[in-house]
Write the structure tokens for this entry.
Amino acid sequence: KNKGLGRGAMMAIIAVVVVLIIIVSVLFFFGFMSMPEDPAKLVSLQGSVEVSSGGEFRAATEGMALSKNSVVRTSSGSSADILLYGSSIMRLDENTEVKIADFITDKTDRTIKLEQTSGKTWNRVMLISGIDNYEVSTPTAVASVRGTGFAVSVTNESTSIGVAEGKVGLKTEFAGETAVEISENEQADIAKGLSEAPTIKTLVRDA
């Protein structure tokens, strides 16, 4: 007697298995792609962190979603991370306040514009996030990047931009807007009322 399946039957079974694998993969892919995504949310909260969405400030919670016009502030000894598209991060140090000024998310554009009025942040923008335009504005400068890591420190009188990797385009206002490029391991300090291009110096690293 002929034991086992014939060649034709075996090929048919293989074809069915392959088709099933393809169907399951397609369903999984589109199911994953359609999963709800919070473009920005708060994670890694330490100490006292508060959020305002146009009204009064309230205590922040782990995983809280943020939207346009959300303001996040940390108090003394506190810190928080804003997670963007699951991979890019803005880390807020103590006594820092940041506002999400603009948030565009569609199939052709991912733009994030943040306003930092005080304190210090560390920004890690990953290319995998698909962010097309990432800007951090301070009272004296605007830093724009894609795929880099940089720190922003704001006081009442000045802004300091330090680049750990990649490059940052910096705009300051003196006799009109002038763009300055800050490269890896460089730092620029921009004081209020600056009447000339900021001086680029070696980055002063901290923890």
Q: What stands out?
A: The radius of gyration is 24 Å. Helices lie at 7-33.
